[in-house]
From TrEMBL:
<keyword id="KW-1133">Transmembrane helix</keyword>
<feature type="transmembrane region" description="Helical">
    <location>
        <begin position="38"/>
        <end position="64"/>
    </location>
</feature>
<feature type="transmembrane region" description="Helical">
    <location>
        <begin position="6"/>
        <end position="26"/>
    </location>
</feature>
<protein>
    <submittedName>
        <fullName>Uncharacterized protein</fullName>
    </submittedName>
</protein>
<keyword id="KW-0472">Membrane</keyword>
<keyword id="KW-0812">Transmembrane</keyword>
Length: 126
């Protein structure tokens, strides 16, 4: 890791030294032309970046629209069916509770009362 840092530092120093040498010994007219070329290239790259970002935003908007349509067409009916099934199960549980379990509890309590009465009548007391 140290070697990489040392070589990186040497490369940066060499690059700065080369840049200073170019600025000292190269004609100013050449540097002006070079700045125009670099500005032109930066403008072209900036325009390309703007086009790429615009395309990515358009793709993202289309993807959001597709996901909205998918949710509206596929997921919403599925959720409605699940809610309907839950309501049916709730209704069935209420029906079973009121129509079957409640009478059986009353019958069991009545039989327990009869058994208790019979037991009380026919059990010997000392």
């Amino acid at each position: 890791m140290k070697k990489v840092a040392i070589f990186g530092g040497i490369a940066v120093v060499a690059l700065i030294a080369a840049l200073v040498a170019v600025l000292i010994w190269v004609d100013t007219d050449f540097l002006r032309k070079l700045s125009y070329v670099s500005l032109s290239m930066m403008s072209v790259f900036a325009c390309g970046l703007l086009i790429a970002v615009t395309a990515l935003v358009a793709i993202l908007a289309a993807l959001i629209q597709v996901l909205n349509n998918l949710t509206r067409e596929k997921v919403s009916p599925l959720i409605d069916k699940v809610n309907e099934a839950a309501d049916t199960a709730r209704g069935t549980a209420v029906y079973v509770g009121e129509g079957i379990v409640s009478p059986m509890v009353r019958l069991a309590s009545l039989l327990a009362a009869v058994r208790g009465a019979v037991s009380a009548l026919f059990t010997k007391r000392s």
